[in-house]
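Morning!

As promised:
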Amino acid sequence: MTELTTSVKVRNKIRHKDEMTINILACIVVGLVAFISLVPFYVIIVSSFRSEASIIAKGHSLIPQDLSTTAYEYIFRTPKTIIRAYANTILVTLVGTFLAVMMATMTGYVLQRPDFDWRNKIAFFFFFTTLFNGGLVPTYMIMTQIFKFKNSYHALILPMAFSVWNMIISKTFMRSISYELTEAAKIDGANDIRIFFTIIFPLARPLVATIGLFTALGYWNDWYQCMLYESKEEMYNLQFFLNEIINGIQGLKAIASMGGTVDISLDALPSETMKMAMTVVAIGPIIFLYPFVQKFFVKGLTIGSVKG
Amino acid sequence: MAKKTEVPAGPIQRKGFRRFVYKAVHYKWLLLMLLPSLVYIILFAYLPLTGLVLAFKKFNYRDGVYLSPWNGLNNFKFLIISKKLWPLTRNTLLYNVAFIVTGLICQVGLAILINEIRIKTYKKVTQSMIMLPYFISWVVVSAMFTAFFGYEQGIFSNLIRSLGGTPSNLTQEKKTWPFILVFMHIWKGLGYGTVVYLAAITGIDQEIYEAAEVDGANVWQRIRFITIPSLRPTMMTMFLLALGNVFRGDFGMFYQLVGSNAKILEIADVLDLFIYRILISNNDIGMSSAAGLYQSVLCFVTIVTVNKVIKLANPDYALF
């Protein structure tokens, strides 16, 4: 361990001219890419705090001007729909992420156990579904006709609860945990489930963080399942609600009429800034998660093969 | 790694079903842990496969998925008559090839550059920023897209106007859309891909670099002869996984950015959009299943063929 850190330290020192050149080049290029990645977020936030008239007249801009909080006031004047959508998204994200993390870690652990003779066959059984799958229509028909998932939370949670990709990441990570730990615990008489939960799972924190974050993101940002399976407004999740607002006046109407006695005509709605404000609301707190889990990523996200 | 099962001598001689049962009992805890995901994959991946019979059926809601009357190859016949199949397939394939190639180059290139940055904080902060677009949905992206490229209030139109020019309406400009779509795809996927390759770079043995340095290799040579070759297995896996979906368009992206913009659809209609449209708008379940089956078969044949070729060339890189 100490050897490794010293060697890394050596690499961090710049000793030659070419190392300086690439360091500067890298700083410039990466900085530019980072800027392009960040600017749209900045513009959305700035525009959401501008007045409607200002945007209509001057357009979106990088420079904050004519600041106003009208858009947010309109959104939260009758917050019932948004809170409902937020609650749906949070519920689905929590339940779905829990299921996904448990299934991915357990499957990954079992499928790399060297003493489990069926591991490659079963891994391929999972993997095959990525090679050949039914696609939209058969899946949609089975979900709606056989499982009757229309307008249920199941439709938002279950279709995304397991991914073969997570299974592969999990398998790769679990392989890096020494098998001797399992063997020693076995000699002590623990069964496999106990070994997994008391020894392996606590060691798999980077993996849990990685899979957890990506699954949570998938659920948070889902609008597709919602668009397919949910037709009642109380089942809408945040992103689909945003989609409705952006792609039509219906969403705005819903907000405006939610309180029942809203005294504004649709023309008076600050629709352009409301779209922006709603976008900011929909991006949500999930975006702040990344810095906390970043340190786990490099460990958790090494991709191995299906076999082995 | 290749530890053999320590099955006692007796039962190992058992053959066939009895051996299977013995092993199943032996593995009971492991199998129990696999049970949730196995049940899941059967219900949500294998059961929908049986729904592919819809491609050969004349579906009606009364008889349901399995009992609707057969329709022979008529669904496929209508699909071919519609003359849409070829342009859709070509679009999907070309867009995906462009996405895969540009994505790979940008992600690997950026990962190498980030790895060369020696200022730790700068490295961390920029990396977080590049990750941001991966964190948002295509719905949010479409809102951002309008803010930048919209004709009336978009930043670019305004910029051109303030410089005294007349902006063209990008949302109706057929020629620029392939570039827009490729750019947006790179923009959104760059962070994730970069982290994957950075993880692989961190896994490279540092001693190789030191040895190369002692032998007088400069930075460029170290990248060229150590980093890139070491990344090859990861690139191969990512490439093959992407190739498995080469006839499947990124529905979220195309739906949110192109949607039902008739003018742009001429150049940016992909199989997934088409399938969705005829399922939801036309409610033509037979024809959309047929198109879906066509798409799945194309994907399957592609990935199996490519994997086979790679297996012949270098078995280590094969996906399965």
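Residues 203 and 230 of chain B are 9 Å apart (CA to CA).

Hope this helps with the figure draft.
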